[in-house]
């Protein structure tokens, strides 16, 4: 019964959290963003005392329910483990706790986080690790499915679905997601919750608390016949039958053991009612090792990179023929001295310290502006670039979804007053000077009116106009950079501000 | 008119007929047969002595041939197989006039038309092509263009040869392109030699230019003139153009036969708002919306042939039906269409006929794509004027999602830099950059929800 309830709730949590990463329209967040916000690490990074307290109390009362229900990576492992043990009768065996490893990983993790290298630490953080898997591996599949529906909708003259572009946002982050998926997936497939009980910093912290939890799994020594069935079904490998003991720091309260006991000897109950000291029985170390050969997932999930199609612009024909489309060269990202972080992130430093690199904002950015950073100090954290779109004035999606408040915005008005960077003009590439054509597309699209068109020849007011940027008014949204006709590099681009300013 | 719209119209007309007929014989399913077979041998022909040509009133415009989805780089972009099929079908059903030009369909129209026509006896068809010397009008390259046309069409004489799109001033004027370089004299000599059987010109432009060129009739003797004529342009020609009633009367006065282009305004007279469809259907439930426009274009006596750029077989079949034989409009019907044109003025579509003369835009914009999407939304009522409009949310979604579907983001109006290189090419004299910026501003308002 308990196990079934746990499974149902866990499944719901898992599906909805996954959908948060898949739903590029951002509609689900209106109802379910709390599911991302109650994740342990985001709550810690936000210093959200309410949620931290809730999770600590929950663990203290019920054990590591969090790991079995709320954590999407935990449930993901349960799913992998379930597939892995389909043909195994007795899938798991007890193993000793690897406390030295657990606590040293936790120490390193905390040190990295405090040292501001949150993004590196986040490599092993459960929620963001799952976020990267969902964003990099599941989202493209979801989007292709959506595009198929959009294809049919278009033919049915319906506007129910629209097409979205699937593109590789960052190769390093993609590879990390693939690696995480394979490593954790294979570990879970073969041995259940290995990651949770050796590496996961959240697991270690909650495990420490759950040692003392009020309700926990207890073995009734009188009834236990030491048949070992429960231990052989414990994916956390935490039931030590020879000693009739349960390692509560590793037990994720999945309740799987309960149904396997034929003698009614194992229960989930209040632990401090009656205290019995068990005489440690002698353990025989010769436990049969059931090393069923399992096919290891051959991770050949290679997503095709959006084919690099750098075409040359058609040379002007001698005779202009009618029709056809000129080739368009893809834009390239300029070298920015300071990376641009989204409005609401306050500063590069704030972002670096508070972001778990879960990719929720990247998943939801409708303008294809956000992508994971590849630089080491902000690895996998969101970074802005304007080759595919620009930070549109009506959108505050990233701030709406951010579970750690690394991106914090109140409304659109506030956004339009935050300088995240400023535009820089590149004379050598400006179309009025290179092509001799009137342009001014940057000025026409500047939402704050920061660009004025001035004569390129000061002595001739009729000469072709070039843009002049008023950096006091520029907010760094990238409309100018994105809509600049100069390709592959724009003639006007945005340099980030380390600390955002309010105008 | 794209296929979907066409089928929709055909669908409506079939349904209408089905209902009408089922009244008499309710048991018979007439759904598919209602349109009846496409008539053969009933095409209306026109003849203007001294020419001996019997010209089918339906002429094939070769500007809108179906193109391949992924043509080879640098190769023919036209779907030759389709062209062969369409031309065979047209000839079989009495069409004998084929109008092309060196610049059509990225320069491939003459080649493809030539390949398809070559499969028929030369006396079975009349071919028309043009001198499109817009950018390079020196004598040598112009004559080169004339010879290339014969080569590409695989013919040794051209039945109807046109000075392409006169009416501009300045560098692209009649004076520069044909008089100053002595080209007109050369073409007149070619006519004397029999390699050009009829010499004429096509026109888009101002009254002054028209009068001037028409006056050359005294010296040159124009065999025919090609004008834009339809029930919308009869009294309401767009900016920079002359009303068709004036053009027709002036030319008819001189007894010169006329070839009609844009009878359907590039499909704009078949893609009309719903209540106009209802209005036309009420008068003639069995006829297509397009058939009204074609009957209008063919009604006047001095019309030699009416050109239609039929991309799809269904277009061709519908037009063959309309013209086999042509039932000229009565005076009352004529007035009915002029009244319809007045009603349509209330829908401010942009007069783009999708001729593609503006393309390719050097900055990659799909100009006709943007304009046609805009027109579609105007006609379908998906142009909310305020957030308070009752259908605002639905119309906004239809406009924005439809926009991304019709035109890839990188080819949308927001990328127009306003260089105005397109403007001189537009025969409808649309100020393209201005329209692009207007549409872009509207899109911004929709996106930001600030209407």
Let me know the number of strands of chain B: 10
Say which CATH homologous superfamily of the largest domain in chain B is assigned: NADP-dependent oxidoreductase domain
Compute the CA-based radius of gyration of chain A: 28 Å
H and E order of chain A = HHHHHHHHHHHHEHEEEHHEEHHEHHEEHE
Shape of chain A: elongated
Q: What is the correct CATH architecture of the largest domain in chain B?
A: Alpha-Beta Barrel
Write the layout of secondary structure elements.
The complex is a heterodimer of chains A (503) and B (451).
Chain A: H1 2-22, H2 29-37, H3 40-46, H4 49-62, H5 65-70, H6 72-84, H7 99-114, H8 118-121, H9 126-155, H10 171-191, H11 194-198, H12 201-210, E1 215-219, H13 229-232, E2 239-240, E3 245-246, E4 266-270, H14 348-354, H15 360-364, E5 370-372, E6 382-384, H16 397-401, H17 412-415, E7 418-425, H18 431-434, H19 441-445, E8 451-455, E9 465-469, H20 479-483, E10 492-502
Antiparallel strand pairs in A: 1-4, 2-3, 5-6, 7-10, 8-9
Helix pairs in contact in A: 1-2, 4-12, 6-9, 6-10, 7-12, 9-10
Chain B: H1 3-22, E1 45-46, E2 55-56, E3 58-61, H2 80-92, E4 97-99, H3 104-107, H4 109-118, E5 126-131, H5 139-153, E6 158-166, H6 174-179, H7 183-192, E7 196-203, H8 207-215, H9 217-220, E8 224-228, H10 244-253, E9 258-261, H11 274-283, H12 289-299, E10 303-308, H13 313-322, H14 331-344, H15 367-379, H16 392-406, H17 432-448
Parallel strand pairs in B: 3-4, 3-10, 4-5, 5-6, 6-7, 7-8, 8-9, 9-10
Antiparallel strand pairs in B: 1-2
Helix pairs in contact in B: 2-4, 15-16, 15-17
Can you walk through the features of this model?
Chain A contains 20 helices and 10 strands. In chain A, a hairpin with a 4-residue loop joins strand 2 (about 240) and strand 3. In chain A, the strands form 5 sheets. Chain A has a two-stranded antiparallel sheet. Chain A has a two-stranded antiparallel ribbon with strand order 2-3. Chain A is α+β, with helices and mostly antiparallel strands and about 500 residues long. Mean pLDDT of chain A is about 85; it is low at about 275-315. Chain A folds into 2 domains: about 1-275 and about 305, no CATH class; about 310-315 and about 325-500, Alpha-Beta Plaits. Chain A has helices at about 1-20, 30-35, 40-45, 50-60, 65-70, 70-85, 100-115, 120, 125-155, 170-190, 195-200, 200-210, 230, 350-355, 360-365, 395-400, 410-415, 430-435, 440-445, 480-485, and strands at about 215-220, 240, 245, 265-270, 370, 380-385, 420-425, 450-455, 465-470, 490-500. In chain A, helix 7 packs across helix 12. Chain B is of the alpha/beta class. Helices cover about 40% and strands about 10% of the residues of chain B. Chain B has helices spanning about 5-20, 80-90, 105, 110-120, 140-155, 175-180, 185-190, 205-215, 215-220, 245-255, 275-285, 290-300, 315-320, 330-345, 365-380, 390-405, 430-450, and strands spanning about 45, 55, 60, 95-100, 125-130, 160-165, 195-205, 225-230, 260, 305-310. Chain B has an 8-stranded parallel β-barrel with strand order 3-4-5-6-7-8-9-10, surrounded by 5 helices. Chain B has a two-stranded antiparallel sheet with strand order 1-2. In chain B, helix 2 links the parallel strand 3 (about 60) and strand 4. The radius of gyration of chain B is 22 Å and the shape is globular. The model of chain B is unreliable at about 5-35 (pLDDT under 50). The chains are: A alpha+beta (about 500), B alpha/beta (about 450). The interface of A and B includes residues 314, 441 and 485 of A.
């Amino acid at each position: 019964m308990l196990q079934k309830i746990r499974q149902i709730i866990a499944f719901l949590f898992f599906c909805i959290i996954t959908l948060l990463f898949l739903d590029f329209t951002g509609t689900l967040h209106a109802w379910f963003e709390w599911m991302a916000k109650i994740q342990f690490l985001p709550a810690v990074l936000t210093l959200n005392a309410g949620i931290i307290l809730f999770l600590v109390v929950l663990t203290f009362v019920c054990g590591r329910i969090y790991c079995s229900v709320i954590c999407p990576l935990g449930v993901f492992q349960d799913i992998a483990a379930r597939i892995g043990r389909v043909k195994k009768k007795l899938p798991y065996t007890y193993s000793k706790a690897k406390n030295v490893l657990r606590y040293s990983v936790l120490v390193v993790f905390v040190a990295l986080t405090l040292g501001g290298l949150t993004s590196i630490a986040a490599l092993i953080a459960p929620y963001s690790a799952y976020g990267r898997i969902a964003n990099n591996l599941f989202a493209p599949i979801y989007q292709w499915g959506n595009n198929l529906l959009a294809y049919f909708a278009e033919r049915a003259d319906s506007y129910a679905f629209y097409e979205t572009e699937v593109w590789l946002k960052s190769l390093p982050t993609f590879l990390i997601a693939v690696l995480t998926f394979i490593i954790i997936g294979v570990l879970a497939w073969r041995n259940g919750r290995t990651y949770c009980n050796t590496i996961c910093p959240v697991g270690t912290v909650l495990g420490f608390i759950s040692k003392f939890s009020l309700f926990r799994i207890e073995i009734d020594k009188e009834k236990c016949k030491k048949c070992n069935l429960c231990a052989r079904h414990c994916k956390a490998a935490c039931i030590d039958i020879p000693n009739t003991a349960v390692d509560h720091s590793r037990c994720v309260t999945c309740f799987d053991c309960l149904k396997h006991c034929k003698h009614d000897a194992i229960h989930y109950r209040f632990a401090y009612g009656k205290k019995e000291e068990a005489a440690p029985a002698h353990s025989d170390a010769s436990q049969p090792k059931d090393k069923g050969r399992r096919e290891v997932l051959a991770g050949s999930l290679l997503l095709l990179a959006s084919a690099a199609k750098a075409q040359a612009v058609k040379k002007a024909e001698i005779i202009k023929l009618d029709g056809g489309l000129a080739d368009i060269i893809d834009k390239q990202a300029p070298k920015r001295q300071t990376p641009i972080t989204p409005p609401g992130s306050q500063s590069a430093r704030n972002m670096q310290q508070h972001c778990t690199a879960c990719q929720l904002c990247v998943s939801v950015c409708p303008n294809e502006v956000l992508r994971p950073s590849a630089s080491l100090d902000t690895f996998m954290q969101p970074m802005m670039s304007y080759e595919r779109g620009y930070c549109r004035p009506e959108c505050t999606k990233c701030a709406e979804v951010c579970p750690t408040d690394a991106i914090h915005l109140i409304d659109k008005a506030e956004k339009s007053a935050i300088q995240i960077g400023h535009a820089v003009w590149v004379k050598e590439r400006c179309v009025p000077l290179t092509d001799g054509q009137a342009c001014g597309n940057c000025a026409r699209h500047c939402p704050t009116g920061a660009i004025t068109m001035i004569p390129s020849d000061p002595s001739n007011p009729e000469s072709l106009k070039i843009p002049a940027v008023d950096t006091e008014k520029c907010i760094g949204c990238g409309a100018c950079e994105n809509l600049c006709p100069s390709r592959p590099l724009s003639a006007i681009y945005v340099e980030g501000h380390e600390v955002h300013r309010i105008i | 008119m794209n296929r979907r719209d066409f089928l929709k119209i055909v669908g409506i007309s079939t349904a209408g007929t089905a209902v009408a007929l089922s009244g008499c014989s309710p048991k018979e399913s007439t759904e598919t047969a209602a349109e009846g077979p496409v008539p053969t041998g009933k095409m209306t022909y026109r003849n203007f002595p001294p020419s001996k040509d019997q010209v089918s009133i339906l002429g094939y415009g070769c500007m809108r041939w179906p193109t391949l989805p992924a043509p080879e780089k640098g190769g023919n972009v036209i779907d030759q197989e389709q062209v062969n099929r369409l031309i065979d079908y047209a000839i079989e059903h009495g069409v004998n006039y084929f109008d092309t030009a060196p610049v059509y369909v990225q320069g491939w129209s003459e080649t493809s038309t030539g390949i398809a026509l070559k499969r028929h006896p030369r006396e079975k068809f009349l071919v028309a092509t043009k001198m499109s010397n817009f950018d390079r009008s020196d004598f040598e390259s112009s004559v080169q263009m004339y010879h290339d046309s014969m080569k590409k069409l695989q013919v040794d004489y051209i039945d109807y040869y046109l000075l392409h799109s006169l009416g501009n001033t300045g560098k692209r004027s009649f004076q520069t392109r044909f008089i100053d370089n002595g080209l007109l004299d050369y073409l007149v000599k070619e006519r004397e030699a029999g390699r050009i059987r009829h010499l004429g010109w096509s026109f888009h432009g101002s009254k002054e230019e028209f009068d001037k060129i028409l006056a050359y009739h005294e010296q040159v003797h124009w065999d025919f003139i090609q004008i834009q004529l339809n029930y919308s342009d009869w009294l309401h020609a767009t900016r920079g153009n002359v009303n068709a009633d004036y053009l027709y009367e002036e030319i008819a006065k001189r007894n010169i036969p006329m070839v009609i282009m844009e009878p359907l305004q590039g499909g704009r007279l078949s893609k009309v708002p719903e209540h106009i469809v209802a209005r036309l259907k009420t008068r003639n439930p069995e006829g297509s919306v397009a058939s009204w426009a074609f009957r209008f274009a063919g009604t006047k006596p001095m019309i030699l042939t009416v050109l239609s750029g039929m991309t799809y077989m269904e277009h061709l079949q519908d037009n063959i039906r309309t013209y086999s034989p042509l039932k000229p409009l009565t005076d009352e019907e004529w007035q009915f269409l002029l009244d319809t044109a007045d009603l349509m003025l209330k829908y401010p579509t942009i007069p783009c006929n999708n001729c593609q003369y503006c393309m390719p835009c050097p900055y990659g914009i799909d100009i006709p794509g943007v304009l046609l999407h805009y027109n579609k939304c105007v006609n379908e009522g998906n142009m909310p004027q305020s957030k308070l409009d009752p259908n605002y949310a639905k119309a906004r979604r239809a406009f924005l999602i439809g926009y991304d579907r019709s035109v890839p983001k990188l080819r949308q109006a927001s990328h127009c830099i306003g260089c105005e290189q397109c403007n001189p090419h537009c025969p409808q004299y649309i100020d393209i950059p201005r329209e692009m910026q207007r549409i872009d501003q509207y899109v911004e308002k929709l996106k930001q929800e600030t209407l």
